[in-house]
Amino acid sequence: DTGAIHGYGAGHALAWADDSTGVGVEDLAWNETDGSLWVADRGGCVARLDGASGRRLSLLTDFVHPFSLSVSADSAVVWLVDAGAADAVYKIAASGDTVLAVSRLLTGPADVAADPAGGCWVADAMGGRVVRFDDDLAAILVSATGFSTPRALRVDPVTRDVWVADSGNGRIVRLSPEGTVLSSVGGFSSPFALAIAWAPGAILKR
């Protein structure tokens, strides 16, 4: 809530601290290619920091309520959900200084996740659906309905399956890349966050 960002190194030792980014951090996203850290702050700004030192590399302002960030699979762009009165999805250059595209086709975007094949997935909380945009945010390629306040989503980097926290229905849903429901598990109160854990070096045997 203070807008401060702390970077920790080996042994959990504090490596750097930045208290000038904004007023309240909503989300962080790591760019593995250049080691930069993206920050969405509810004060209306999106910052890009040097992950090693915390030094600010770029700053974009004039957003309403930056809420969720996701770096593309090739680290070429960053997807942003601007919540609140904006209800917008942005495509931002990896340099952090240019907005490449914007869409206002949704009624209440709550989370965004890059698709390994291009474009991004967005949980449209107020619209009760999960959608996939094309790479230019010009068209919705997939629209999966039947949700009640979907709050979060993550895309499997291997299978491209989409996992959705369907908050209003108290369930977790797995979708195919085409938007078909593959599985669903319920019994939750109000799930609102997800993470996918996987071992890239694991060997699968039959």
Plain-language structure description:
The protein is mainly beta and 206 residues long. It is 0% helix and 48% strand. The protein contains no helices and 18 strands. The protein has strands at residues 5-8, 14-18, 25-31, 36-41, 45-50, 56-60, 66-71, 77-82, 88-93, 99-103, 109-114, 120-124, 129-133, 140-144, 150-155, 162-166, 171-175, 181-185. A four-stranded antiparallel beta sheet has the order 3-4-5-6, with no helix packed on it. Strands 7-8-9-10 form a four-stranded antiparallel beta sheet, with no helix packed on it. A four-stranded antiparallel beta sheet has the order 11-12-13-14, with no helix packed on it. β5 and β6 (56-60) form a beta hairpin. The radius of gyration is 17 Å and the shape is globular. The model has no long low-confidence stretch (mean pLDDT 93).
**Which structural class do you get from the secondary structure elements?**
mainly beta
Strand order of the largest sheet: 3-4-5-6
Strand proportion, as a percent range, falls in: over 45%
Report the order of strands and helices.
EEEEEEEEEEEEEEEEEE
Q: What is the end-to-end distance?
A: 48 Å
Mean pLDDT: 93
The DSSP helix count reads 0
Shape call: globular
Care to count the β-strands?
18
Q: The biggest beta sheet, please?
A: 4 strands, antiparallel
As residue ranges, the low-confidence spans are: none
Radius of gyration: 17 Å
Portion in helices: under 10%
